[in-house]
Write the C-alpha cells for this entry.
Amino acid sequence: MAAQEYQAPESVSRLQQRAFIVGGVALLVSILGAVSTPGLFYQSYLMSFLLILGLTVGSLGLVMLQHLTSGHWGIIIRRPLESATRTLPLLAIAFLPIVLFGMHYLYSGHDKEKGWLNAPPTGEGALSAFQRSYLTLNGFYIRAVIYFVIWLALMFIFNILSKQQDASPEDRALRLRFKMLAGPGIILYVFVMSFAAIDWVMSLSPHWASTIYGFLFVAGQLISSMAFMIAVVVLLSRSEPFASVLQKRHLHDLGKLLLAFVMLWAYFDFSQLLIIWSGNQPEEISFYRTRLYGGWGVVAVIVLVFHFFVPFFLLLSQDVKRNAKVLPKIATSTIYGYLFALGLAVVASLLICVYILRFTLNYADSTDTPPPPSREALGKDYRALPPEPRLQGVPGHETDPQADLRKKIQEDSEANEKLEWIDRSSGIAQIPVKDAIKIVAEKGLNAAPSPAMEKKQ
C-alpha cells in the first residue's frame, strides 16, 4: 500500500518565493564582498556555511536518534528532517568556493598570528611534527571528501529505507534494520563532525586546541536543527494535514528535547571555558581573550543570552513548551544565538561588532582628557612617576602575552646568573643561584640567634 502524498501549503510557496528574492540579493552582495574584501568575505562565508551545514547534518543526527530510540517525538518531524538532509548535495557544492578560492584567506593566519598554510618551519609560530603531517592541503582535501561521502551515504541510506517503509509500514524487520544502522550512524556523525570542526574551524588558530571542540559543534547543530523543526511544523500546522495532527503534547516533547540540547551545549561550552581559564596557559587563554573583550565581548553576551539564558529559563515552563505561538519564537532565537556562536568561533566580520568597535574607538579618541606629560617635559622628575601600565589589547598598547612571558622568563634567568658587587664596602655581592646553592650545601647556613641572645645584645 503506497503512502499518501501531500503538497506543502500555499504559505510555504509564498515563503519560498520571498526566500529566492532575499537569496538573489544576498548573492549579489556576496559577490561584491568577495571582490572588495575577500578576507572578511570568506570568514563570513565559512560561518554561514557552518550554520546551514548544522541544520542539515543536525537533522540527519536527529533522524538517526529517532530511529534508535523509536520515540514518538520524532514521528511528527521525521518527514521535515528527511527533507532537510536531502540538501546535503547542495552543501557539498557550496563548500567548493572555500576549497578553490578561500583557503589562502582563511588558513594563512590573521593579525600577527601565522596560519598553518604559511607557518614557518622553525622558531616562533612553527607547527609541531604532528601538525605539519596533519595540516596539509592534500590532507585537508581528502578528509573533506571523506566527510561528505559519509554524510551523503547516511543520508541516502535512511531516505531510501524510509521510502521502503512507506510501502510496507508494518514491516518489523525494516524497523529493526533502522535501529541497527542508526547506532553506528550516530557514532559516525559525531566523529566526522568533530574532525570537520577541527579541520575547518579549530585550525584557523593552529596553536590552540580543545578536545571538546567537536562536541560543541554537535550540540549546537542539534539545537539549531531541533529549533528549525519546531518552527517548520508550527508553520505547516496552519493547514492540513498537520493542522489535525500536531497537538500540544507533540510541542511539549519537542520543547523538552530542545531544552535538553541547550543544557548539553552549555555544559560542553562551560567545561571548555573553565578548564582553559583555570589553567591560564598563554597559548590557550589567548583564544578566549580575543573573544571576551572589546566588540567581541558584546557578541559573547548575545550568545550567552539568546543561546542559553532565554531558551533555558523559558523552556522550564510547561505552558511555554505547549504554546504554539511562543515556542517557535524561542526556537528561532536559539538559531540566531547559534549564528553568533559560530561568529565567535570563526571570528567573522559581523556588522554589529564592527559598529560597536568603531563607536568605542571613536568615543575614546573624542574624549577631552589631556594626554600624559612626556618624558622630556618632566625632565629629572620623570623617575618619580610609576611606570606606564601595559594594557594588552588596548589600542596603543599592542603586546603579545606569549612574547611577554618568554621575555620575562629570559630576564629572570639572566638576573639569577649575574655575578657582581652590590655593596663592595660592606662585602655584599650577588652570585649565581646555582653557586649559592652549592655553597649552602657545603657549608650550611649560620644559625639564627635565639631570642634570649637578641635581648642581651
The chain has two domains: 30-118+131-360, 402-444.
